[in-house]
Amino acid sequence: MPRYLLSIYQPDGPAPEPEVLNKIMADLDVLNQEMRDAGAWVFTGGLHPASTSTVVRVNDGEVLTTDGPFAEAKEHVGGLWVIEAPDLDVALGWGRKAAQATTLPIEVRPFAGYRE
Amino acid sequence: MIHISEIGQIFREEYGRSVAVLVRVLGSIDAAEDAVQDAFTEAVARWPDAGLPPSPAGWIITTARNRAIDRLRREASGREKLAQVAVLRGDEPGDEPEGIEVDTVEDNQLRLIFTCCHPALNRAAQVALTLKLLGGLSTAEIAHAFLVPEPTMGQRLVRAKGKIRDARIPYRVPSGAELPERLKSVLAVVYLVFNEGYAASSGAGLVREDLCREAVRLGRLIMELMPDEPEAKGLLALMLLLNARRAARTTPDGGLVLLADQDRSLWDRDQIAEGQLLVRQCLKRNQPGPYQLQAAINAVHSDAAQPADTDWRQILVLYGQLLAIEPTPVVALNRAVALAEVEGPAAGLAAVDVLELGSYYLFHAVRADLLRRLGRNKEAVAAYRAAQERTNNAAERDFLEGRVRALTTTGRGPAAPTSDDPHGR
């Protein structure tokens, strides 16, 4: 079964107010259960803010470690799902539900090597 | 004896149908295109001597399928592909070749249209794919039509087909709840092709006939495939009514002629009759939408033997309905033009001046025309200049230049045109 990555794009900055956040967390629980019941759920997880990221590079055998995320932007990936779906329309259907639950944009991207 | 150019013509006409069926059978757009290309090569070798087969379309599909089997055999590297060959040949009991027998050609054409216009593809890619796969245009022809280098258009097509393959955009007609949004996207692509042909956004020629013809052909196909969709009917009616004026819209040297100044005897009566018939069918259904209303507006224009006979009150009512469905500044601008005809240029100008359309050349062109009719020539010249700066179309720029010259040399303008659209629609 094809697999898709659903990335949550989160603006940098403080987390939402508790009452807003509680609603989001409750909606996410419902969505995750729905994905499991449909057999689509593979993995999900939320991330600490992009400011906690570290990038490691190797140039000519020399290791360079830098503080912060790879790309400078106002939004970063704040969490993700890996799902199974027979085609893009089904994956986009989950993406729409994820966008509604998180109130954030969701990028839907196919994994390579899971075609059949 | 059949000539190669005739064979090419037949393939172009049958390309969309053949590719649509073969995508279903082969599960791959590239493989389908290759197979149809192989069939073309075989036709060029065979038809000149053997003559045209009884059903060229059936011959192309059967031959293309057989060539696809040959290709798979040649390239077969494992059990999987050999199994696919067996399925295609219908070797195994119960393994009827999927697609051809079960579905009609029309089912597959509709699938192909919705795949090409899938919202996960950007608009430029949707347009390019639609013209390539359904219209049978070559990459070079599409590149030429949209004034981009051929390698750029080639890249665009490769990328779009790669996304369909890798992201698995399904080959399917969307179901109930999804359909209205998805159909909107399909109709928008067809209308964009038409408009690019009708009012080329840049370049010397104002009209590119082949794009208009292709858009009308696609519009007709969609209407036939989805007879219960009034907007599909509305779009075809709109394109026919606009296309009917093509011969009258430009001077022999490529200049622009306003609707009010057009020689109405040059209008294509057949296209007008068909467009008006479709508009009447839409009115009967009474499920108005943006394309149907625009078609109705143009049907009113087509009814007038002379510009002075135009029923502007009816047009104003229709624009009011369109504005209610589609409250955009561009629709409001067109409504203001109709208002100027019914209540006078001052009322029209008041309605135009509140619109935030400063970057749109037609906004300035309409303002200029209304100012000229109010005798405010200095302001009119400034507005024509503002319009000129905002269009790349040479014919439109020349037209605006002519207006400026008329105002500055005689001190008074030419006879007031009663056009609702300086485009000359």
From TrEMBL, chain A:
<dbReference type="Pfam" id="PF03795">
    <property type="entry name" value="YCII"/>
</dbReference>
<feature type="domain" description="YCII-related">
    <location>
        <begin position="9"/>
        <end position="99"/>
    </location>
</feature>
<dbReference type="InterPro" id="IPR011008">
    <property type="entry name" value="Dimeric_a/b-barrel"/>
</dbReference>
<dbReference type="InterPro" id="IPR005545">
    <property type="entry name" value="YCII"/>
</dbReference>
<comment type="similarity">
    <text>Belongs to the YciI family.</text>
</comment>
<protein>
    <recommendedName>
        <fullName>YCII-related domain-containing protein</fullName>
    </recommendedName>
</protein>
